[in-house]
Amino acid sequence: MTEIMSTRRRAGFTLIELITTIAVASILLSLAIPGVRNFTMNARQAGSVNEFVSAIHLARNTAITTNSRVTVCASSGGANCEVTSWEQGWIVFIDDDSDQAVDPAERIIGSGDGSNALDIDSAQFGRFFMFRPNGRVMNAAITTNTGEFTVCDERGSSYARVVIVDISGRPRLSKIKANGTAPACS
User: Which tens digit of pLDDT belongs to each residue from 138-148?
Assistant: First the structure.
């Protein structure tokens, strides 16, 4: 009978072993969770930035191929340009009369929902920017034919990304601004 009891005792874990295993697992999880959070936030930011850059490419390519002016503007409703921030969304449309408003004869060719988890700011392209038939970007003032968008999330300036649109209209991504300084998040 003592042989049977000692066999049963060896088959399971002791309370000390179980507590030690749970403690080690807790420590490992506490180290891994911040990395997973950072990975998730990076993926969310990259997805939103890529969607925005795709809209810029669509606008430029459409302007060139259709020989028309194409406007990209901030829009929370997805139907017309609005006085709103870029993170609320945007639309891309063929702007035949260059008035930054979607008229009945003008066609919306793209839109984005934006992301409330991000801030997208631009000093040069406050409400809109437009592509000419040659693919070059323009804004209301001749001095703002180039510009950039700073994309920030709750992590602050050290994780900010910059979408730089040069005079040729081609967007590029960067961790620093066009002038070489670090981006600032508000």
Answer: 887 666 688 99
